[in-house]
């Protein structure tokens, strides 16, 4: 399993799209090749408990265009370690 553990937040200078692009490039080696191993990419949105009314978009709304562009992404899920919401599902 490959994991991008600490993708910086946008306030740290890297946008979410840039981070996803970087991770997909690392996993896929930059370009598809005939002998590439298919590694499923799962994007996990953490800190669900910190979302408030100022950010009303759902994960699906944010991820739909990204998942269309990066076909390597198999699925996405949100979790909250603080509230133990969907944490087991991330590792299942």
Topology:
Elements: H1 16-28, E1 41-45, H2 59-69, E2 73-78, H3 87-91
Parallel strand pairs: 1-2
Shape call: globular
Amino- and carboxy-terminal Cα gap: 12 Å
Helix and strand sequence: HEHEH
Count of extended strands: 2
In total, how many domains does the architecture comprise? 1
Please count the helical segments.
Answer: 3
- Please give the share of residues in helix: 25-40%
InterPro entries: P-loop_NTPase (IPR027417)
Keywords:
single chain, 92 residues, alpha+beta, two-stranded parallel ribbon, 3 helices, globular, disordered N terminus
Task: Give structural notes.
Helices cover 32% and strands 12% of the residues. The protein has 92 residues and is of the alpha+beta class. It has a two-stranded parallel ribbon with strand order 1-2. Strand 1 (41-45), helix 2 and strand 2 form a beta-alpha-beta unit. The longest helix has 13 residues, at 16-28.
Quick recap:
The chain is α+β, with helices and mostly antiparallel strands. The chain has one domain.
């Amino acid at each position: 399993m490959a994991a991008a553990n600490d993708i910086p937040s946008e306030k740290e200078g890297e946008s979410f799209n840039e981070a996803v692009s970087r991770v997909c490039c690392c996993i896929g080696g930059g370009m598809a090749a005939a002998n590439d191993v298919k590694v499923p990419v799962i994007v996990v949105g953490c800190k669900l408990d910190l979302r408030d009314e100022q950010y009303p978009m759902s994960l699906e709304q944010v991820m739909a265009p990204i998942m269309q562009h990066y076909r390597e992404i198999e699925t996405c899920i949100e979790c909250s370690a603080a509230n133990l919401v969907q944490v087991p599902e991330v590792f299942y």
